[in-house]
## 1
Amino acid sequence: INAEYMVCGGLLRSEPEHVRMMARLALQLLDAVLRFRPLHPTDGLSKWSCPTLHCQVGIHCGPAVAGILGQKGKLVYDVFGDTVNIASRMCSSSLYGHIQISEAVHAALTPSPEFAFHPPLEIRLKGKPHPMLSYFLLPATSD
């Protein structure tokens, strides 16, 4: 089963640290997924009894539009815009166990002793005519 979740920072109120907060959340999420172990890894019921979790994370920052859509009993809160689309593409083009960030997020996070980055990659994203630079976000190593 594939599931996607979107988290927005700084959407409802201005928060100057929202990009850093999202980066910290992504690192914590990835750590939790990588450390996950099922309670009963070998119960012998089936090959599906020992789930493996995989996680891909993509982060982008920029303007977005949010609102409630629908009529009467079927209302949905949603977020739209190029920022959302780029974040989604960063996620889908990322590698399992990695956090891919856009150049805008990299710029917002540097310099920082809290984060490290894999050298930039040039990627092509669906719907974008030109390649974009992306980075893999890493926790800073403590020496």
## 2
Amino acid sequence: SKGNEQESQNKLKRMMVIMDSMTKAELDSQEGGKLFNRQQSRAQRVARGSGSSIKEVNELLLTYTNFAKVVKKMGGVKGLFRDGDMSKNVNPSRMAQLNQSM
């Protein structure tokens, strides 16, 4: 429905604003959320820079961590896009799992 679509777009925009407040090193880090867990001042700085709360920053990091776990279980990004079509490489139950993690 239109309401759900608008809500999803707004959530995505918020995530992008939060990520825009992260440094390149933070975005590219293999450690993901662990980096922020070890240094809470990072989450505070990102929250201030993005006009969001520390809770929103932590929720984004948790979403990313969960998404990364699901993608890894599915054979990684290369496994998802093998032959150029993700729908051929992911069964419906796995796709539902992927959608839930986001």
## 3
Amino acid sequence: QKVPMSMKIEEVKSTTKTQRIASHSHIKGLGLKEDGTAEEIACGLVGQEKAREAAGLVVELIKSKKMAGKALLLAGAPGTGKTAIALSISQELGPKVPFCPMIGSEVYSTEVKKTEILMENFRRSIGLRIKETKEVWEGEVTEINAEEVEDPHGGYGKTVGSVIITLKTTKGSKQLKLDPSIYEGLQKEKVKVGDVIYIEATSGAVKRVGRSDAYATEFDLEAEEYVPLPKGDVHKKKEIVQDVSLHDLDMANAKPQGGHDFVSLMNQISRPKKTEITDKLRQEINKVVNKYIDHGIAELVPGVLFIDEVHMLDIECFTFLNRALESNLAPIVVLATNRGISTIRGTDMKSPHGIPVDLLDRLLVIRTMPYNLKEIVQILAIRAATEGLEMDEDALAHLGTIGVNTSLRFVVQLLTPASLLAQTQGKASIGKEDIEEINDLFFDAKSSAKMLQAQSSYFISQLICH
């Protein structure tokens, strides 16, 4: 088939990622001043000054590694910003500190024990920063040639016998003749002339660092990361930092290596995907990790495990949490709940927040308070800006008044339908009449409950036996 010489590219959509706007897309941090006090509106957060200041202290404790093994409880009514504060903590800690969010109901599975799922998430929340000094060949690729030889096993095909690569640094260049196995590594990393790479001398592992900044004037369709030409000799010792979680180490060591024969392959395919990692394996990994830490090879980075809707856990999970918080390798646990005095799942006992009293004793509790009218209006303005919606001031004020009588979550959800209604009527911004019409079309939880009580005879609410 003949390939057309000219190709239309105008209609092809850009590969630029469009990020979906989620409930907490506008959260960028805790919004604290340098002295630790909270600004009224900052980083997407409004109000809740005391809760944010307390969370700021927790961030400082985590950064100074004095919070490991301790737990925090965010308690407050629904829609008062508990999840937003937890996500703000993760934003303040930065990408290098592990943050593992989960919901209380995630632990219930037919395949794996509840405590195993909790332990997995605990291990995901503990990072390990491994520093190794490795002997490497590093530089910008100026030449790459694969030398082909006749296939030793016969046949008509040819195989790569060796690969010749020239690496250049600020001090000079060096030509290397490498094993064909390294050629596979070069292909996997998609290395081409002009890339800056390093090859580990002991293992032969290839790592592409980026494109040399000498090529920065090129017009490329995809955005490249340009890096300067490496300094020093081509052959050198380089400190390589790798960030992994303890769960990554567990998984890497739990996978059976197996043979390459057909039976081994079939066994791997038929094996269920979810398998439990034994305590014995974890203890062995902990020993190796502790040895690395003692020798200064690795550094422990305790992260954050965030359990939302913690009242969904049962008594077995709470007992496990008590024990897990006492272990040497424990992350910072942040819990959140909107329950008052409620039954502890799996028992007949009632307790504050549905959490056993012995675990509550270990927690630092942060209260989140209901928002007032002014704060609701400010939050709605931030959400409208995040979603790119235009709103009249009287529409915003009216929506805030509805929020006081209903809930913050309800009025935030009315923003997009109100915008669509305004668009269908050919308006550029949402007006007060659009908010009134949308409020008539949709019911909030309180109005729906009132309607149920008033019209209970029309609903099947209980079995009536005559």
